[in-house]
Design goal:
alpha+beta, Beta-Lactamase, 5-stranded antiparallel β-sheet, 43% helix, 5 strands
Length: 129
Amino acid sequence: MSLDATLEAILNAGSGILGVILMDSDGIPIAEVSAPTANARLPGGELSATAVEFGRVLGEAEKAAEAVAGGRMSEAVISMARFSLVFTRIEEGMTLALAVEPDGNLGKARYLIRRNLLEIRRQIETPGR
């Protein structure tokens, strides 16, 4: 399965998932998929711009985690009125972000990320898979 197909499978398997994006540490999208309903919820209908904005917040959260000797941050969830964001570290310098509608199943979205994490890592290591 390709990286796009894996992200598409996550998108389609969860209730209320608006989009899934894999991005590098500079916020540059590596792969992204969106649901048709994303246009109504996400600014510009894109998860990439939203994820980049919150990427700065994640950088500060990672510094705070180090400052309190909490170890490496692996996941962050930010809930807002219009959608929630789940950020999961895939590997150093690479993050998966997922947007969920307010009435979507956030727990299942997190589960789907964890369930597909190994496959995503494999696809990153062997591009073109």
